[in-house]
Queue: 2 jobs
Job 1
Amino acid sequence: MELKLDLLSNAIDSLREALEKYEQGSEQKIRAYKFSVLHLSHFLELLFKYHVSQSHPLLIYKNPFSKNIAKENTITLWDAIQFLKNEGAEFSVDFNKDLEWLKALRNDIEHHTFELDILEVRRTLGRIIRATEEFNEHHGLLDVAKHLGGTHLKIYQELVDEYKASLANARIAAKGLTENGETYDCSGCGELGVGAYIGHEIVCQLCNAIDHLYQCFRCEDRFREDQASSWNDEYDEYICEYCSDHIFNRD
């Protein structure tokens, strides 16, 4: 048995692994994000080396003039990026910052202790995927999506789609802000599972809309305004729909 991957195939293989681990992380398998970071870092390094190799295959080596090229070290991600910049490619300041963040986190994971802020990881990885996609499109370099399929393509497209990525992050945040992981629908933006119960309010983690919860004086549970009505204005008391029906519809 033998496994042999060329530069691009190796890059796409690491991207698939990064996407799988990202999806596992969203299912509360938090440790999976560590491996998503590592695999995505590997994908980016190989991807930009691949772009350099399109100018000439030997340029991915630090010493392309070596008599024993097979034993030469290859260039780093930052070497590849600088080469592309020298060719006229543009990298935004934000893209550079996110790549620096990814590099630092990867180094901590590989060589030291590390901490992961899950939402920061998800948002930054999403930004990096979108920026990479835009870079490839702008410079006509590579359509990454054509090399993916099935679940990998679905996750990749969700990350490229900023709203879908934000929606997924909002749902993760809402789950993390409640003790039992219960989430609520938002009456503002209408999205499902994006509301967190915080201090007798439902706070949407996507649009920041806030629904105050009114306590029923009879059953003492809390309800949204459309599920409760004023019972006693003088004492600012409310009654829920269930208790109101029970009181007024008794035989």
Job 2
Amino acid sequence: MSDYSSQLIEQRRTLHQWPEEGWTEFWTTAYIVEKLRSFGYEVLLGTKIINPEQVFGRNVELVEEGKKNALARGVSEELIAEMEGYTGAVGLLDTGKEGPTTAFRFDIDCVCVQETANADHKPNKEGFRSQHNGFMHACGHDTHTSIGLTLAKWIADHKDELKGKFKIVFQPAEEGVRGASAIAGSGILDDANYLFGSHISFMADSGEIVVAPYGLLCTSKFDVKFTGKPAHA
């Protein structure tokens, strides 16, 4: 029997050390791709899963810096080219048996937060603090990505017991509500009969799942412009 707990922890701690902000997650995407392909998934990248016309908040200079960082950390030029300048990945697995298409979505970006130097902070005590100064997985997306990869491994391990098709979606640029529209706009999810998203939270105890399809994990982005004389509130 596979030890999925060990996989969860190892992946999360690796990802926690190398956080990348939205649309710059080239190393993170490469890490995801290599894992998925080792599990036997077909992996889609670039404009196969991203609609460039629906990309929001993408800074080209930061994107190029993200590519350079990924190459410096050992990602191949071939894999960077496969991404076509866009981060994120979708793993596809067909059980070969008729059934629904089930999709699971996990976000992969970090926030621009400096991780504490407090010696009692667990990542400092156990050697997996952020190595990217000024950036941190402070919103749990390292955990989300690890959960997605471990779910993908579980599905692959139990393929013969399942039916239908599975899509494991690793979405870039969740922070700032920037990446979901580009994924949806690509059409990659149009055939999904079921789509699940999730977020870790302190509102639930360990081993507990809270189902909240409306409100809690739903959001919309609006750009609002005010015209008038500027003043203090």
